[in-house]
Amino acid sequence: AYFTYVSDFKTPTPTGVYDSSKLNIDQTIVADAGDTWYMFHRELYRVDDQIGCPKGGDRFRIVVRSSNDKGQTWTHRGLILEPEPAFCQYTDGDVYYDKSQNQWHALYQCQQPCAAGGKWAVCHASKSGSDPVGAWIENADNPVVVNGEFYEQLGYPELFEECTPDIVQKNVDGSLTVTIHGVEGVGAYWNLY
Predict the structure, then answer these.
(1) 180 vs 188: CA distance, rounded Å
(2) Residue 128: predicted pLDDT
(3) Which of 7, 121, 133, 161 shows the smallest number of beta carbons within 10 Å?
(4) Minimum mean pLDDT range among 74-83, 111-120, 176-185
(5) 50: region left, alpha or beta (phi > 0 left; psi from -120 to 50 alpha)
(6) C-alpha separations of 4 from 25, 36, 42, 52, 69 in Å
(7) Is the peptide bond before 54 cis (omega within 30 degrees of 0)?
(8) Secondary structure of the chain in HEC code, one letter for each residue
(9) Span 169-183, mean pLDDT?
(10) Whole-angstrom Cα Rg for the chain
(11) pLDDT greater than 50 at residue 186
């Protein structure tokens, strides 16, 4: 394997309130949706905290940018998922374009307000069509994986906060193979589902 430098691109929050480029990470680049590449990443922004979140008014949402020149340049970002009013954060995760169904799927960390425990879980959203820019439909059953759900089933109740889903592949039966990690205070664990 070898790597070739293509470009350097910062992803600042547009409001310019503070330098958030270092926090707007966890990028997923989808290059198999045709000639256009798409880069999904979290974006930090600040609001008045109306729902009681662990980090107050600091929030993360998910945005997308596109490139028609294989990553040399990227467009201005387009907002696809914002957590309010039901969640505090939408952040790290993965995006998959299902060509056969012409549909996008996103699995991402979502944090509940303090009144609901302030725990991390996994949420899902989808969008029809080949272009991911625009309104996504959030799964009515969000969060689709609640805090502690998988680890309790596996007999590890000390583990919690299933987060950072990564979509490995789409299976023949239409299901997705996904990795998720959890923590127990000092260590982190990765599991394949």
Answers:
(1) 10
(2) 96
(3) 7
(4) 176-185
(5) alpha
(6) 20, 19, 25, 45, 15
(7) no
(8) CCCCCCCCCCCCCCCCCCCCCCCCCCCEEECCCCCCEEEEEEEEEECCCCCCCCCCCEEEEEEEEEECCCCCCCCCCEEEECCCCCCCEEEEEEEEEECCCCEEEEEEEEECCHHHCCCEEEEEEEEECCCCCCCCEECCCCCCECCCHHHHHCCCCCCEEEEEEEEEEECCCCCEEEEEEEECCCCEEEEEC
(9) 83
(10) 17
(11) yes
Token pair recorded at residue 124:
């899902």
Place of tokens 């805090």: 147
Dihedrals φ, ψ of 32, to 5°?
A: -105, 25
* pLDDT bucket at 125, cuts 50 / 70 / 90: very high
Q: Position of tokens 């799964």?
A: 139
Distance CA 57, CA 176 (A): 34
Half-sphere exposure for 100 (CA within 13 Å, toward CB): 5
d(Cα 120, Cα 147) in Å, to the nearest integer? 6
- pTM confidence score: 0.83
